């Protein structure tokens, strides 16, 4: 694992749409991200109506600094735009989707 890459901070926001449930769920994978940024992202997502949790899994070095991974059936482009704006507001580059 490239330590420089980890130090830059990687973020993967995984969005899943649970069937028969209106609640949107975001899972933050925040390896190497400052706690202040994590809290700001969580707070912003919650304000937009997301249920937020964190996962400690490792992120492959091939991933860019910000990624939004979604369920293939997820089609809410407004939600994706909201998340992109939240990440950009915290100094992340344009997230890959």
Describe this structure in words.
Helices cover 33% and strands 25% of the residues. With 97 residues, the chain is α/β, with parallel strands linked by helices. The chain has a 4-stranded mixed beta sheet with strand order 3-2-1-4, covered by helices on one side. The longest helix has 13 residues, at 35-47. The radius of gyration is 13 Å and the shape is globular. It starts with a helix and ends in an 8-residue tail after the last helix.
Number of H/I helices: 3
Instruction: Count every beta strand, where a strand is a DSSP E run of 2 or more residues.
Output: 4
% residues in beta strands: 15-25%
* Secondary-structure element series: HEEHEEH
Question: Which structural class matches the secondary elements?
Answer: alpha/beta
Shape: globular
Radius of gyration using CA atoms only = 13 Å
- N-C termini distance: 22 Å
Which sheet architecture does the biggest sheet show?
A: 4 strands, mixed
Strand order in space, largest sheet = 3-2-1-4
Would you tell me the overall average pLDDT? Answer: 78
Please outline what is shown here.
The protein has 97 residues and is an alpha/beta fold. The chain has helices at 3-8, 35-47, 77-89; strands at residues 11-17, 24-29, 50-55, 66-70.
